[in-house]
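Whiteboard transcription, Tuesday session. T.W. wrote the structure tokens on the left side:
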């Protein structure tokens, strides 16, 4: 068994795990070899450091595509794995309240109210995670833990946003962590979520593929930066029009 590190642009996929009649990351790879993906990501979610397990050695360059890149191999690993997801927000929230919400969520809780119920299996809703906000010209929420429930990160991110907006109070958030309810927090948009990394593996990297990943995201960044300037100019122009 070999572990392979991969990155992908999730905007073109209906999630990571194989689904019937849907284009997924795992589904694309299984056209060529048997693969089992370690961490599930939802539709539109991108990853820099997800992992797949394959039964035998494969050529990374042969199976790297336009939006999927296999760029590392490991033959040894140590459990438990540590996963880190990052969620990105505009800086239009009360940052003190955002930090308070992150402190409250960090630790061991029953996260029943912050996940999509999986009816196909018995689920352990008690998880231990750590949430740290990094505040600059935007807010990045880093969620770290051994495992996460379905849509858990996106629902927690939405709860933190609601606290930062003053739509729910810290006391209400605390209640949601202590008492189960049928009115769960809905998930935040998936395109602002990134599976950043999974620790526990000793990877060796293919630097040719790694450069292709860097070039791809650098081009995305340049295009986004130009669009940002177009949008800023457009807003300034429209605001200056007398009505």
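and on the right, the sequence the group agreed on:
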């Amino acid at each position: 068994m070999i572990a392979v590190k991969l990155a992908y642009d999730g905007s073109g996929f209906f999630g990571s795990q194989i689904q019937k009649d849907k284009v997924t990351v795992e589904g694309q790879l299984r056209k060529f070899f048997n693969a089992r993906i370690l961490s599930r990501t939802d539709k539109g979610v991108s990853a820099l450091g997800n992992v797949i397990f394959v039964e035998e050695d494969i050529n990374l360059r042969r199976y790297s595509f336009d939006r999927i890149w296999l760029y590392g191999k490991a033959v040894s690993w140590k459990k438990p794995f540590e996963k880190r997801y990052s969620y990105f927000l505009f800086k239009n929230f009360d940052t003190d309240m955002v930090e308070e919400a992150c402190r409250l969520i960090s630790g061991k809780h029953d996260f029943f109210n912050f996940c999509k119920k999986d009816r196909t299996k018995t689920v352990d809703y008690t998880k231990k995670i750590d949430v740290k906000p990094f505040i600059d010209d935007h807010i990045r929420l880093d969620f770290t833990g051994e495992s996460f429930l379905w849509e858990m990160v996106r629902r927690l991110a939405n709860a933190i946003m609601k606290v930062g907006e003053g739509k729910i109070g810290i006391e209400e958030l605390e209640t949601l962590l202590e008492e189960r309810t049928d009115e769960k927090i809905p998930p935040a948009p998936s395109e602002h979520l990134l599976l950043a990394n999974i620790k526990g593996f000793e990877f060796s990297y293919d630097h040719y593929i790694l450069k292709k990943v860097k070039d791809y995201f650098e081009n995305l960044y340049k295009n986004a930066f130009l669009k940002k300037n177009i949008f800023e100019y457009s807003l300034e122009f429209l605001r200056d029009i007398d009505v």
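Someone added at the bottom: The chain has two domains: 2-75+206-237, 82-194.
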